[in-house]
Amino acid sequence: MDFLTSPVRYLKKKQPIYQISTLQSLIMGNYYGATTVEQLLRFGDIGLGMFHAADGELILLNHRCYRILGDGSARLAAMEDRVTFASVSFLEEGDTISLGAMESLDALRGLLDERVELLGANNLYIVRVDGVFHRVAARTELKQEPPFKKFAEVLAKDERRFVFENISGSLVCFYFPQYLEGVNTAGWHFHFLDDACTCGGHVFDIEMERGKALLNKTDRFVMDLPHNQEFQDAALENASKDEIRQIEQGGK
């Protein structure tokens, strides 16, 4: 009833996840920039995504935006750099979880899934995990040139993988419920940035010594669609479930 009686108070109640474009659009090869880093920072201080022309994975942490280059190194993005796809939010005080040793990303995913089941699996979640890692396996992509190929082809040819060992850093984790698959990845999506902000990427696997997670739950989601003709012409319904899963698993 708060929304009916006091919409302003309702809007201030919880931070939304803001998203630019859809995952289907990315899968179908629409890598044209739909916004800028400067504009994206208006909507969040934590997030993940991809830059124009699939030119590197995007990590937003502490209100600073980084591009992951082909060798796994991180570079602070310029305000005018264009972004093709991203999910961001403002991280607030929330549930904290002390984490012991985690032998894999699946182990962490399972623990987070348990918390989501308790709190409500049809909501959306943002999690930051600060930890000490024995190993982080990650990836980025190389810049593409138009006419753009579908993302599965990009992963097969221009995905670059790397492993970081004995490193401290942060996992940026976003959860979308099953009914939003295609709009984003159903389940968890993980990116990593080290404490020195020198390396990172889209995460496949981890081995963590210890860590601490901060979890935010939200029931608010805001999305802006691209304005380019490529988006209007794309047959988004043709993005298959296998291609959606490949976003997480990679091409190799």
TrEMBL record:
Matches recorded under InterPro entries: Acetolactate_a_deCO2ase
UniProt keyword annotations, A-Z: Acetoin biosynthesis, Decarboxylase, Lyase
Matches recorded under Pfam families: AAL_decarboxy
Pathway(s) of this molecule: Polyol metabolism; (R,R)-butane-2,3-diol biosynthesis; (R,R)-butane-2,3-diol from pyruvate: step 2/3
GO molecular function annotation: acetolactate decarboxylase activity
Signal peptide: none
Enzyme Commission (EC) number: 4.1.1.5
Reaction catalysed by this enzyme: (2S)-2-acetolactate + H(+) = (R)-acetoin + CO2
GO biological process per UniProt: acetoin biosynthetic process
SUPFAM superfamilies in alphabetical order: AF0104/ALDC/Ptd012-like (SSF117856)
Record-annotated membrane-spanning stretches: none
Similarity comment: family membership: Belongs to the alpha-acetolactate decarboxylase family.
This protein's name: Alpha-acetolactate decarboxylase
